[in-house]
Amino acid sequence: MMSVKFKYIYQLFLTQFVILLIACLMIGLSISHFFKRLFF
Question: Which positions, given as ranges, span the membrane (predicted)?
Answer without folding.
Answer: 12-35
